[in-house]
Amino acid sequence: MKIILATQNQGKVRELRDLIDDEGIEVISLQDISDWEDVEENGETFAENAAIKARAAVRRTGLIALADDSGLEVDALEGAPGVFSARFAGEPKDDERNNDKLLSLLERVPEEKRTARFRCALIMATPNGEEYLTEGTVEGKILGQRRGADGFGYDPVFFVPGLGRTMAELTLEEKNNLSHRAQAFHAMIPILHNLKERE
Questions:
Q1: By the number of CB atoms within 10 A of the CB, which of 35, 43, 173, 177 ranks highest?
Q2: What is the full DSSP assignment across 146-166?
Q3: Catalytic annotation present for 94
């Protein structure tokens, strides 16, 4: 059984392969498609954007396709930046400018109201029109300054209270174990195995 993960990110592909842990399921990515054209992710939610990518990959390949979309939701900003997380400070997308904008907007917000979460929506679409959604979230709060040198995106300002560190201060293994994407992937694996058994 061959499936496609609609991403150019080989880290995500490795993560999914490790989680599936089944030699009978081959995972390929958009890098394996010769003339893939990026689709416009114009959904209003993470799930809508993931579905846009998954459906496009099914149409292009005829394979079962998985796609994810994720970002940061800040309660004091009514859920922003949300689906605009990657381009919060405008084009071209830039992690430093995104963090600068976020910290500026929260400058006068007290610590107890700086709650936030990373959210990931993962969609699996099949050639016969079935779709499955799983989600993962990591709750935390936004600090007033960056901490940690690892990670990317909003990791340096996203504090995980249960661990007492920011996402950028975690090891890769720690981050992968608790991340919103890992949670969504974990929840999808049994569904994928059921599809394989039905073949």
A1: 43
A2: ---SSS-TTGGGEEETTTTEE
A3: no
